[in-house]
What we know:
By secondary structure, this protein is of the alpha+beta class. The protein folds into two domains: 4-155, Jelly Rolls (Sandwich), CATH 2.60.120; 158-381, Nitrilase/N-carbamoyl-D-aminoacid amidohydrolase (4-Layer Sandwich). It has eight helices and 25 strands. The chain has a six-stranded antiparallel beta sheet. Helix 3 (173-189) packs parallel to helix 4 and helix 6 runs parallel beside helix 7. The N and C termini lie far apart (52 Å).
Amino acid sequence: MVNRMQMFDSKDWISWSPHEALAPEFIRDVWGEDPVLVMHANGNLEKYGKWMCKIAGINGGKTYEINVQYRGTDIELNGLNCYVLLTWSDSEGVLLTRDYLDQAGRLDDQWVNLHRTMIAPEGAVHVEVELAFRWSASGTIVWRRPSFIEKQSEGSRKLRVATTLINKFSGNRNDNLAAMGTILEQAGVDRADVVCLSECVYEQGCEGRGYGLFGESIPGTFTNFLADYARKYNYYIITSFFEMDGDVLYNTALLIDRAGHVAGKYRKTHVPLDEAEMGVTPGREYPVFDTDLGRIGIMICWDCYFPEVARILTLKGAELLFVPTQGNALIQSLARAIDCGVHVVVAGMWGENPSRIINPQGKIIAEIPEQTQGIVISEIDLAESYYQPWLSVGNASGEARILFKQERRPNTYNYLFE
C-alpha cells in the first residue's frame, strides 16, 4: 500500500515530456504543509508534460480508490488541459489498461478533486500515476494530495432489463392498454427490474390525430395504469405518451418507479415535422434520473438520430440509455451505444428486429423480431468494464465511456452554435 506522503516523496516522482522542446517548466515546492508539484507552460501552447510515479504491490482484481487535487490558473479547458491517468502493467512490464480519473467536483473556489474507484485489471502488479498538463499557452497547474487506497470491493451491479414489442393495434385505447398489460404481466413473471415500452403505444392506431384530439395529464388514466403494474411487480417502467399540460401538448417519456410513483419525465426535444404539425411542442431539457438501478437517461425516437442528445445525457452521468420509439435505423442505436460507451435499450414497433438491447461496444445482446409481439430480457452488469485494445491509449486497452468524455474538444465546436 502506498500512502499519500510516500507518493509525494520527491525521489518517486519524475518529469516527462514527448520532447525537450515541448517540456513545460517543472517545479517541486511546498505550500503550507503540503508538498506540491507545479507545471508552467511558459507562454507556449504546444507544451505537454507529466509528473509520473510508479507504484508497486498492486493486486489485480482488487478495488482501489484514487484521489488527486489540482489547482489551475489561465487554463482554457480544465478537463482537456490537465488530467490524471493510471497506466496499469503486469510483472513483465506489459501495459494492460490506461484509465482517466473523473472530475469529482470543486473543493472550494480554487482546488478541484479528481476521483475514481475502480478494479485493477487482472494480472496488474504496478500502476503508474500520471499527472499531466498540456496545450495551454499561459497556464499553470499545481497538484497536491494524491492518495491510492485499497478498498472493499463494491461488487456487481446487475439488473434485469426488459425491452418489448407491440405492433398490432385495433384502433382502441383500451385494447392498447390490454396489450401492454399482457406484456407487463410477463415482465413481472420474468422478474424484470425495468421494462421499456415503445413510443406512444397508448394512442397508437387511434383515430383523431391532432391538437386537442388526444393527450392526457399527469396523473391520468395511463399513468395510473402503469403505476399499478410497477407496484405489483416492483419494477420500473419507461414509455412515452402524449401529455397535455394546460394548453401545451408534449411527447413525454415517463419513468415510473417500483412504488408506482412518477419518478421523472422527459419531453421529446427533437420533434419531427409530422408531430410538430400535429401541435406537439418540443421539450428543452435533458434530465438524468437517479434510481436504485443506476443513473438513467431517456431519448424518444427521432432524438436518437441526433448524437448530441445521447452525448449530453452521458456527460450528465447517465449509465444506461432507454429509447422508446416507433422505429429507428439499427445503425443509429448501435452508434449511440458505441459513441457513449453505455448500454442502449430500444423498444420499437416496426422494422427489422425493432426492439433490442445493445452493450457498450455496439453488440446486440437481445432483440425481438418484427413479427414477434412480446418481451425479451437481458441481465446486464453496470459495474462491468468494456475495454478495447489501442482505443486512444496506445499499446494498452482503453474504455470508451471514460475516454470519449475526457478527450472531447468542446472549445473547438463553436461552429455547431453558429
